[in-house]
Amino acid sequence: MRFASPEWLWLLAALPGLVLVVWLGARGRRRALERFAGGHDRAPAFLREVNPHLRIVRALLLLVAAASGITALARPQWGTRLEPVTRKGVDVVLALDVSLSMAAQDVPPDRLSAAKHAATALVRKLGGDRLALVTFAGKATLECPLTLDGEAVGLFLEAADVDAVPAKGTSLREAARIAVLALGPSAGEGTERSRALVVLSDGEDHEGGLDDAIRVLKEARVSAYAIGYGTRGGAPIPSTADDRSPSGYKKDREGRLVTTRLEDGPLGQLTLATGGRYFDATAVETEVDEVAKAIAGMDAREYGTVLRARYEERFQLPLALAVAATLALTALPDRRGAAGIRNRNGRSTP
Question: Rounded to whole angstroms, how far apart are CA atoms 8 and 3?
């Protein structure tokens, strides 16, 4: 047996408090009766028609109703049956720029860390879609093929670093080419849009070939979305282990600091030509929500039908017990006779 909503079971810890409330209520009624009767010795005369055993039964019924109701809320389940489930979603490739310029710190803590955080948030929002991860610099590498396992994609994202791709530079053409290979062949001609590429980059494209990247994506019917990282004012690039500078930043042959800045032009062209959108990165990551919303509006495709074990709901049983206990509690009196206590004139009083 299992519970679909086990958090409700914590309410069972309040049952001892309910017992205490019932006991204090009975004690309070007894004291009020003693005050009304004029003393402890005279109180039994007013209790002759009250059945203490029925009062205990009523208290037990109250506890049974409460415990059964809480158990029903927790949705007990046992027994399984197989049912076919058709999976639908969008195929999405995340292309993460790991070039040296992504180590710049004009976006705190640095461009790459901000991009990885946004990509992780996007993976969580795209639950149900198939995801793949490509890292790129001068060349591109498929880190994780298409999968429904978002946690696996998250592990590869966490491991991504500026040393992940040895080829220097940045090539959007390579990112597009490997992304299309990861997505596989297109389903054919038509207007259906069920494949997307999300580029997280500062937009620098040292290798050129942007027109080729657009052509490859359009032929594969892939809509590109992009999030740009960095500032347009630019920032120096931290020096690497192979090029350690006394100032801590990369310098050219003339000894001048190498500055990198956000280049939104190539990213904007890529997304506009393929029917997607470009977004500047923000601290609150509203662009992640926008990308997820745009992908959610695309045409979902079927991934196939699988058999899934479904647990049978059994909350009806404790719910029926709670209703029965409540009805019994309402109908059961706590007096010995239905006529009540008769006074000296023969009239019944409640």
Answer: 9
